[in-house]
Amino acid sequence: MTHLLLDEATLKAGEGAPIEAVATLAGAGGAAKCAVLWMKPDAELKSQLLATGIEQVIEKPIAGAALVAALITDTEENSGPEDRDPLVSQAA
């Protein structure tokens, strides 16, 4: 597992305090990059969430493409001008 994405609504639907659940899940995530989606968190709540061990607090609502960009920051194109193999189609 490389990424762990938690959601406020799901955390609040469970038993116990959401912050405790975030801490437990972030700890169980190992080396995975952990993020949580939260509806308009204030500065104090962001601090509490980050103190649990997660790396990112992402404010909801967020578009799908923006969420992917926020989570996966180390993207690298796998084709480019130097990869001009005549047997490989560049159509896709």
What would the keywords be for this entry?
alpha/beta, about 90 residues, about 35% helix, about 20% strand, three-stranded parallel sheet
Give a quick summary of the entry.
The protein contains four helices and three strands, in the order βααβαβα. With 92 residues, it is an alpha/beta fold.
Lay out the secondary structure.
Layout: E1 3-7, H1 8-13, H2 18-28, E2 33-39, H3 43-51, E3 56-60, H4 64-71
Parallel strand pairs: 1-2, 2-3
Mean pLDDT: 86
Order of helices and strands: EHHEHEH
What fraction of the residues are assigned to beta strands by DSSP? 15-25%
Low-confidence stretches: none
Number of strands: 3
Distinct helical segment count = 4
Silhouette: elongated
The Rg value, from CA coordinates, equals: 18 Å
Give a written overview of the molecule.
- The structure is a single chain.
- This protein has 92 residues and is α/β, with parallel strands linked by helices.
- 37% of the residues lie in helices and 18% in strands.
- It has helices at 8-13, 18-28, 43-51, 64-71, and strands at 3-7, 33-39, 56-60.
- The protein has a three-stranded parallel β-sheet, sandwiched between helices.
- The longest helix is centred in the first third of the chain and has 11 residues, at 18-28.
- The protein is elongated, with a radius of gyration of 18 Å.
